[in-house]
Amino acid sequence: MRFTKMHGAGNDYVYVDCFHQPIPDGLPELAQRVSHRRFGIGADGLILILPSRVADARMQMFNADGSEAEMCGNGIRCVAKYVFDRGICHREQLRIETKAGVLAVSLEVSGDRAQRVRVDMGEPILQAQRIPTTLPGDPVVNCDFPVGGRTLAVTCVSMGNPHCIVFVDRATDELVLGLGPQIESDPRFPARVNVEFVEVVSPREVRQRTWERGSGETWACGTGASAVCVAGVLAQRTERRIVNHLLGGDLALEWNATDNHVYMTGPAVEVFSGDWPE
User: Fold this and answer.
1) Class of CATH domain 2-121+266-275
2) pLDDT per residue over 151-195, tens digit each?
């Protein structure tokens, strides 16, 4: 199996081009094997790049634990770069199909290679039942959330996948690595949840650490950063345009007041290609 390792702001995945080779067997198990950072390639998960009947390409993604996810903001930027750079569809405006719907992307190109990608992440989902969460409120904003012997104030947003945002003074290991996995699997989130711990630097700037559903702490989360942009406005912490500093780099976000869509811009980087022997 031929693969390409790529990352968006440090959120790294193994990508398989299924335009030019068959879809591998046993995808959940394969995702676990290739993602292992000791015995595999090392990644936050596995993403297939597939033909689509309704868009220029389709992405199918699996977390490091083998569970399938709806969408990945950093992943879709890398899919767009791959599709453009490899000539699958050599246009600077692309449409990529995901389990969360078809998303439009715009590429910033230099030297005939895509460097940065702007993604129309669509409208945020704020109804509790659709996120899904059993917490009260439509939207769920600054809701008291007892967990691990303390009570947090959480705001919930779906960007096609569920997010729980916690604004904190400092995003410590105690919070991210200690409470993150507890919140992820809390029964108040029936489909599990991604958890963002966010420090507000200013109304236009935040720092984010993410405990990602099915993958643990990741260096970036594009859907999470998009959800944070929305949550910041709802919780009256930030403006509609922000820069989000993640462990692996920066993302620019805007929750547009005109069309209600969230727009995310960030890097897409190819690391190396190889052959998986199995």
Assistant:
1) alpha beta
2) 999 999 999 999 999 999 999 999 999 999 999 999 999 999 999
